[in-house]
Write a structure and sequence with these properties.
about 0% strand; mainly alpha
Amino acid sequence: MKDSALQILAGGPTDSRISRRELAKILLAAAPALAFPAVSSAHPVWSHLTDSDFLDSAEPQIASPNWKPIFLSPAQEASFRVLAELTLPGSSKALVSRFVDLLLSVEDRVAQQKFLGSLSAIDGESSTQFAKSFARLAPQQQESLLVSISTAPRSGDVSSIMRGHFEGLKEWIAGAYYSSEIGMRELGWTPDRVFSTFPGCSHPEGHP
């Protein structure tokens, strides 16, 4: 890791609780030195992570006991929440689906429709193979479907299109997850200890 990134990580708050705003600052400062998991530099999540006012307002909204989705329908949020947890275990605890719902509510229509199209494609494939929506599948069926989609060849056929849909959703999941305290700790950060390098995502390469 570059020294500048290491210094910023070392200067983080020592409180055991840290806001997403502070985590975003740390992550963005260290990002050039990281092989950041699964999120391209052009992805819209990066622009939201630089918006301190938005992040400050996001915190109480997504943690509210009375939370309801703003952009996604309840069924869409439930499907995405299951998908996120299978993709990056711990996503439910990190409130990934809630944070992404909030991000989408302020995104442009192109990004919104692309996200919904990809989520619908996953549900459609689930219905084709198992006659059920993705959220209603048994855990083994959900994992089997995601493995087949995420490992499909990049050959331009139907299976590769489905893989593209999954990878687009995975970028949203990874951006929301790794900007949370749970995700940052997985990368090696703690409030009172600095690693000379981030170990990176611990999920095996073959995981969807």
